Amino acid sequence: MHTLNYEFPADRLPARGSHAGVVASGDLEVLLSPPDTGPATAHVRVRTSIDGFDTVWQAVLSRFFTRTPLAGRWELNDSGATPGVVALRLRQVAELALGTGEQQ
Amino acid sequence: MSTVTAPRQLPAQHSFLEYDALARARALLDHGIARVLCGPFDRLESPWLEPQGIVPQSDDGVVIARGTVGGQPAVVASLEQRFLGGAIGEISGAKIAQALRLAAADSRAGTPTAALLLLETGGVRLQEANLGLNGVAEICAAVLELRPLAPVIGVIAGETGCFGGSGIVAGLCTRLIVTPHGRIGLNGPVVIEEEAGRAEFDASDRALIWSTYGGGQRHASGLADEIVPDDAEALREAVQEAVAAGPRPAGTHRSERLDVLFSRLASLDPASPPPPRPAAGSAVDSRGRSWLTALGGKPSEVIPSVLRADTSDAVYLAVVPDPGSPFHRARAGEVGLNESLALAQAIRRTIDEDAHARQRRAIIAVVDLPSQAYGLTEEKVGLHQTIAAAVDAYAAARAAGHPVVALVVGTALSGGFLAHGLQADKIFALDDPGVTVHAMHKAAAARVTMRTPAQLDSLARTVMPLSYGIHDWAQLGFCDGLLHVHDADQPTAPDIANVQAALAAAIEESRGGPRDLSARLDSAAAVRTRAASREVRDKMAEQW
Lengths: 104, 544
Prior knowledge:
The complex is a heterodimer of chains A (about 100) and B (about 550). Chain A is of the alpha+beta class. Chain A contains two helices and five strands, in the order ββββαβα. In chain A, strand 4 (about 40-50), helix 1 (about 55-65) and strand 5 (about 70-80) form a beta-alpha-beta unit. The termini of chain A are far apart. In chain B, strand 9 (about 305-310) and strand 10 form a beta hairpin. Chain B contains 20 helices and 15 strands. With about 550 residues, chain B is an alpha/beta fold.
């Protein structure tokens, strides 16, 4: 297991905390908690069962936060999800947090 | 079955196989989930996984949700089968047990609160071995606490099935609903093949698997109450009917119907079992027999493999080897079909005999058993159900006011210990290297968790519930004492006196103590080791 921490500039505020996904083979769980203070940063902690993909995580996350600069505490609990699945879960949580998505 | 006349079932529109734990819970409540208790943002994750390099899940793989079913207050415990196979660890176990206990408290206070258990689970989580095993025992106790007050409905509709200790939980439910895709058993096919070889169970034989464990088979043979198609609407209707039917009268639960279970067993011919193994030396000697005799006097046979000894104020019970048993997988002292039913019957009789006694006798489980019986016949008949009967009987004795004390003198493993020992209100073990408590044999546990036995030993030094050492086990919060003896095989007079004194004190204390298992979270060791369980208990009570 491997823990990675990232920070990205973020200027949007989530309306609520949101959660999606399961820590299951090829999948991950994403939690977003609204920031304690005003928007400024997305703090991301990734715990992953697969070592050695730091640069892939960096790339997937920075692409997501460039498009969706949603501030708060992001926690990703990963069990070997592919970048596509990671992007899907991130988007799902963002939509729930902004009130634009449906409950799964 | 005729393929010509069988009605064609349309493909299910909302398959439970496709749903995650949250969606299953939502589908069965009247207007969806009113609220989730101890959910992801409470971050009550297992403290034992990260040190093993396993990514935890924020709700430890179980969704506890409040809502109503047919207008009646209800709580759902839904296991996430995709997270570590839905297996029960410290936190997930504590969550389910506490949800059931809070429902019982509400029911006693005048608001009957039903429980739905969505049991998509492989049983005890081997990564948390002894804490998972205890978690299952506490869930069993809590089901039995709620069951007389409000219905506890089991639903088995997932891909994983319901195995291991969870199969015993299923066997205790007021009503059990299955789909054709659900499976119920104690030992799963892979575990039996692992423990007993391919000749006993070929885990690649799908037809054998479904004709043994499958929802259709279990329903047809009376081990499940309802079978419904794998469809959310059909399951919701079945659950509503089951909840509306209310609790069953005492004595009519599947796990109480010893007459039915005995007749199942009698109808079975363990067809040409392998010949009894010749007793090598004194193969039938066992610590169980030695200690039973030392403490209770000359034993009598309930059956050849279940001995009892009676004193004026206690009944001692032990499971011992019987090389001549027709059940060849239960010849070495394992808890099999016969053994679990014999235990249940002996305990039930003791409860009845003492119904009007001034003081109920203590029941002492002398524990030395290699495990439950791993066999095909056992699964066909339903070992999960006969063990549920033993669990039910022990818990009933405890609730009725019999001090129930377990004394581990040798090996206490897995489902065997759940059947015979873990419902006790006091648990002692001999302080001896030959004494072990665990959820699975080391070699098998190593294979299942994809480690070597050496890795397992090294992890166990930091992850206490994994340890096979009795001193580590004693730190988990449910050991009432390690008893020093000089000779655990052939107890000396001072050994016997020492153990007798400890038992007498425990019996005395038990008579004034709680009749549930709540003390397991209040012990000094639990305060240290099971802080996470205590947090679950407090937080869920707060959020309830």
